[in-house]
Amino acid sequence: MVPAMPGEEREHFLAGLHVGVLGVTDTGDGRAPLLVPVWYRYEPGGEVVVQTGRETVKARLLRAAGRFSLCVQDENPPYRYVSVEGPVTAVNDPVDPVEREAIAHRYLDPEEARAYLKSTADQLADDITFRMRPQRWRTANFAAFAAEFSEADRMDRDG
């Protein structure tokens, strides 16, 4: 069995800097769910916040489904991931400029964030914000397995 993360650990992991993969149901003609990488914001105990263009496929599907999932991972050993799913609790239209700025500064250094915000200023009129309350959590932390393998390897070498 894959070791899960305790509640506080999973929330701090989700709050860490990761690119998320957003998943939302696509009910069109046997299509698989839409999965797209996104910048997001989350603070422990709070809501997941994502932004997208008002007229995008993602926005249309989010409105129709009324819920989404987000998965984030650490690609470096020992591997870890957190996946959350829950209902959309609010749609802010248009996007709040302060929220947009906070997300840009989360992912970019200050100079890059300023340049990004300036070059994409027109998105303030086109983007909207979706908020989701995590209801279901799926997690894995392979650190325990890594420790076991390291110990077994050490014992084999030391013989």
TrEMBL record:
GO terms for molecular function: coenzyme F420 binding; oxidoreductase activity, acting on the CH-CH group of donors. It comes from the Bacteria. Pfam families: Pyridox_ox_2. Keywords: Oxidoreductase. GO terms for cellular component: cytosol. This is Pyridoxamine 5'-phosphate oxidase.
